[in-house]
Design brief:
The chain is α/β, with parallel strands linked by helices and 448 residues long. It is 50% helix and 13% strand. The strands form three sheets. It has a six-stranded antiparallel β-sheet. It has a three-stranded parallel β-sheet with strand order 1-2-3. A two-stranded parallel ribbon has the order 4-5. Helix 1 links the parallel strand 1 and strand 2. The structure holds tryptophan. The site of tryptophan has 12 residues, from strand 1 and helix 7.
Length: 448
């Protein structure tokens, strides 16, 4: 049994060292496990919620795609795609929007935080809040449910969204599944062993704190950022406290256990901070120089990246397209042709059949109607001189012999032995006429 692992990366920025250690590297390691079936994608629709600068969106998509590939993602093993290349995701978003409780979305942290901020600032609670932000969790639920992911590696701030995906998926299953579980219930995967990387100032490394170490820009920039890591004021020769040094935490995230132990020892023995920073740089550069070069090459060949992502999109859609077809079916967005068959199939189930109803006209002639199981008129006969003639025709129609149906512009006629015996009602168009002909054939099939 394979485990489907799925995660998305919002394409608003340039990945930094914290993204690499906290998300990219562990995801690539996980994708190499033999039972893993990984779906990793660029959440560029989510990016539009936060960013209205087209150039930044464009640049970030390219940089993030290149980062994952340069970091060693094997696109033959995983399905790597852009969310916006999968139209099924937006379509599913709507199906899910129609079952998602508004009250559930009212509770989403990101939306609530924006409302709180507005209220604090004395503004209208919804000032500047788009429906995109409000519906963010539904789009994310579609990302996850579209591919029936079992595990969703995310940061803590996203756990609530995965729970909402479960909630919405369950509701859909309940409403439309008829005992079938369309959607697998996803679980958030919080990698406890992956420590959140501290930034230059010791707080979580994050672009919003402006404390990041760049990942693949250049060795020089990385060195420059490392030189700005905040340390205490102990002089060279004085013992340092590794457990209270985020420089040590950063080192540990990239070193082997032995390497870390050695570095700890050196700090305890009074290694100067300048020297410590230079060792950190050497460690990082040793691991990142090669992928940095690969990154540079990829960025210079955007057309190749485009091809890779198009291939990924095709792979993803091989799953998404048929699945969405089933879901459309389930909610009632069905082809009219199938609808007829379904209606007849259920007729068989309930034992109700189409029926002939005969009546006499004022002039004494005999006629009949053929009514579908739901009472809708399928045919109205021409006039017959006596009941026997009418009876012979209805018998003939039920014999299972091929029907002689002749389409008119907005109706059809039914013929027996070269004589017109009945007319259909009028239809809005040729499509409706064809459906009615199909329904008539099915209604006149001999009953088992
Ligand atoms: N919202 C996620 C984030 O900002 C990104 C994301 C979008 C995602 N869709 C997803 C993560 C589906 C996991 C699964 O981090």
């Amino acid at each position: 049994m394979t485990t489907r692992i799925l995660t998305g990366i919002t394409t608003t920025g340039t990945p930094h060292l914290g993204n690499y250690a906290g998300a990219i590297r562990p995801a690539i390691v996980a994708s190499r496990q033999s039972d893993a079936d990984s779906f990793y994608f660029l959440a560029d629709y989510h990016a539009l919620i936060k960013c209205d600068e087209p150039l930044r969106i464009q640049r970030s998509r390219l940089e993030i795609a290149a980062t994952w590939l340069a970091a060693g993602l094997d696109v033959d093993r995983v399905t790597f795609y852009r969310q916006s290349d999968i139209p099924e995701i937006t379509e599913l978003t709507w199906l899910l929007t129609c079952v998602a409780a508004k009250g559930l979305l009212n509770r989403a942290h990101a939306y609530k935080a924006s409302v709180d901020k507005n209220v604090e600032g004395g503004e209208d609670p919804d000032a500047g809040i788009t429906m995109g932000l409000y519906s963010y969790p539904v789009l994310m639920a579609a990302d996850i449910l579209m591919f029936n992911a079992h595990k969703v590696p995310v940061g803590r701030d996203q756990i609530q969204h995965v729970e909402m995906a479960r909630d919405i998926g369950q509701r859909f299953n309940h409403l439309f599944g008829q005992g079938k579980e369309f959607f697998v219930m996803p679980e958030a995967l919080i990698e406890e062993s992956v420590a959140t990387l501290p930034g230059l100032d010791g707080r979580k490394m994050s672009k919003s704190y402006d404390n990041t170490i760049p990942l693949f820009s250049s060795a020089k920039e990385m060195k420059e950022a490392i030189s700005r890591i905040v340390t205490d004021s102990r002089a060279p020769g004085e013992a340092k406290d590794p457990d209270n040094s985020h420089l040590f935490t950063l080192y540990q995230a990239f070193a082997t256990p032995e390497g870390s132990a050695e570095f700890r020892q050196a700090l305890l023995q009074g290694l100067g901070w300048g020297e410590a920073k230079s060792r950190l740089f050497t460690l990082l550069d040793g691991q990142l120089a090669e992928p940095r070069e690969a990154y540079r090459r990829l960025i210079e060949r955007p057309a190749e990246l485009e091809d890779i992502l198009q291939t990924g999109a095709r792979k993803a859609r091989q799953v998404a397209t048929p699945f969405l077809g089933e879901l459309r079916e389930a909610v009632g967005l069905r082809s009219f042709r199938e609808q007829v068959q379904v209606a007849t199939a259920s007729k068989k189930k309930t034992g109700k059949a189409a029926r002939f109803v005969s009546f006499r006209e004022d002039d004494g002639s005999f006629r009949f109607r053929l009514l579908a199981a739901d009472g809708e008129q399928l045919l109205l006969s021409r006039n017959f001189a006596d009941g026997k003639a009418a009876g012979a025709v209805t018998k003939q129609l039920q014999s299972g012999a091929a029907l002689d149906v002749r389409p008119e512009l907005h109706s059809f006629t039914l013929w027996v032995d070269g004589v017109c015996v009945a007319d259909s009602p009028a239809f809005a168009d040729a499509g409706a006429r064809e459906i009615a002909i199909e329904a008539l054939r099915l209604a006149l099939l001999p009953q088992e």
